[in-house]
């Protein structure tokens, strides 16, 4: 019983397959503080550089329109609806750049944390999320406690930052009532941007330990037991597609090794079209000739093409080619009952080589 409990304990790191499955489900380590801080930083930087001109232009257009058209327009249901639509459109156009920047910053924040990923799995309705017992456990879990502490800490630090900025500029705040509307709005806007940038930088600093914690917690959540790893290995081994790919890869590697040995061979015995068996005789390695490559149909054609490229002699012997293909494996010596036939072929090949060497020497 104790051994069974130990086997079910989540003590092992997640396998690549488990990580891929959790990623497809949208379960990835991600800190929302990274997104929030980037969105605030980009938006308030934009306001710092162009906010004054944008707000002044927007209010100037609205005031000009109000004093030239709206004040002399008859108040009816249609005119009020048109006025509301016009003001809403102007306000939307004014904040549209900020919305686009915020969306870009949020997307970029997610990308730098989890990379390119698109999944609809988290959006699917799951009835187990309505389970009150599981919900109660989530509320009072260690993760919820950590999130509560983080939230309280962030609120405290953000509040302290805002209070500090207001306190250091208290004189300007107290003098707002004595300033013109334009100057007062300028001071309020500048203080707002200053507080926004300070909070954004603060959240960016806090997002570093938060992201580290999220990665740690994610690794802890996806841990596997020894039994899980064994079951996964069995499932992979039993998958026909995995077996097929593995077999295909093994065949490709075997073909590559065969092709590398052909240039050093002595002869290729062919069928002539369906079978090809490559032989080599090396007294230092074996007492008898041995097979360095063999193939049928397409593989046989590749073997013969490779042999032609390196001027390896090819001898057509249908009976011997079939017998060698079916009775021997790569690296195995020629069977005893085929010694005589193979010896005759090798003798013929050696005579050809000697004749070729003699002709070459005579020409020279």
From TrEMBL:
Organism phylogeny: Bacteria, Bacillati, Bacillota, Bacilli, Bacillales
SUPFAM superfamilies membership: EscU C-terminal domain-like
The protein, known as: Flagellar biosynthetic protein FlhB
InterPro entries tied to this protein: FlhB, T3SS_substrate_exporter, T3SS_substrate_exporter_C
Compartments it resides in: Cell membrane
Annotated gene: flhB
Residue ranges crossing the lipid bilayer per the database entry: 38-60, 93-119, 148-167, 187-213
Record function comment: Required for formation of the rod structure in the basal body of the flagellar apparatus. Together with FliI and FliH, may constitute the export apparatus of flagellin.
Membrane topology category: Multi-pass membrane protein
Principal localisation: membrane
Any coiled-coil regions, as ranges: none
Signal peptide: none
A Pfam family hit: Bac_export_2
Assigned keywords, A-Z: Bacterial flagellum biogenesis, Bacterial flagellum protein export, Cell membrane, Cell projection, Cilium, Flagellum, Membrane, Protein transport, Transmembrane, Transmembrane helix, Transport
Family label: Belongs to the type III secretion exporter family.
């Amino acid at each position: 019983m104790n051994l069974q409990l130990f086997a079910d304990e989540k003590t092992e790191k997640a396998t690549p397959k488990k990580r891929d499955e959790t990623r497809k489900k949208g379960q990835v380590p991600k800190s929302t503080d990274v997104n929030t801080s980037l969105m605030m930083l980009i938006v308030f930087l934009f306001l710092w550089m162009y906010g004054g001109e944008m707000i002044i232009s927007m209010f100037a257009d609205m005031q000009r329109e109000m004093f030239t058209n709206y004040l002399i327009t008859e108040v009816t249901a249609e005119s009020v609806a048109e006025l509301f639509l016009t003001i809403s459109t102007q306000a939307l156009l004014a904040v549209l750049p900020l919305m686009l920047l915020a969306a870009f910053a949020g997307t970029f924040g997610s990308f730098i944390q989890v990379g390119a990923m698109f999944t609809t799995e988290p959006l699917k309705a799951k009835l187990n999320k309505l389970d009150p017992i599981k919900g109660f456990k989530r509320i009072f879990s260690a993760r919820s406690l950590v999130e509560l502490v983080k939230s309280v800490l962030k609120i405290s630090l953000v509040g302290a930052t805002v209070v500090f900025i207001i306190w250091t500029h208290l004189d300007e705040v107290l003098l707002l009532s004595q300033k013109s509307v334009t100057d007062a709005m300028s001071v309020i806007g500048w203080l707002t941007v200053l507080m926004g940038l300070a909070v954004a930088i603060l959240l960016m600093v806090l997002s570093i330990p938060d992201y580290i914690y999220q990665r740690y917690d994610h690794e802890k959540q996806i841990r596997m037991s020894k039994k899980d790893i064994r079951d996964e290995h069995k499932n992979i081994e039993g998958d026909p597609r995995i077996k097929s790919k593995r077999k295909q890869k093994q065949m490709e590697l075997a073909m590559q090794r065969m092709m590398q040995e052909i240039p050093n061979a002595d002869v290729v015995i062919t069928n002539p079209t369906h079978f090809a068996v490559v032989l080599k005789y090396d007294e230092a390695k074996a007492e008898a000739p041995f097979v360095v490559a063999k193939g049928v149909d397409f593989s046989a054609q590749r073997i013969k093409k490779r042999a032609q490229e390196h001027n390896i002699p090819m001898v057509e012997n249908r009976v011997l080619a079939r017998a060698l293909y079916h009775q021997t494996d790569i690296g195995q010596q020629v069977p005893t009952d085929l010694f005589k036939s193979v010896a005759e072929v090798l003798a013929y090949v050696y005579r050809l080589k000697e004749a070729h060497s003699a002709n070459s020497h005579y020409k020279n």
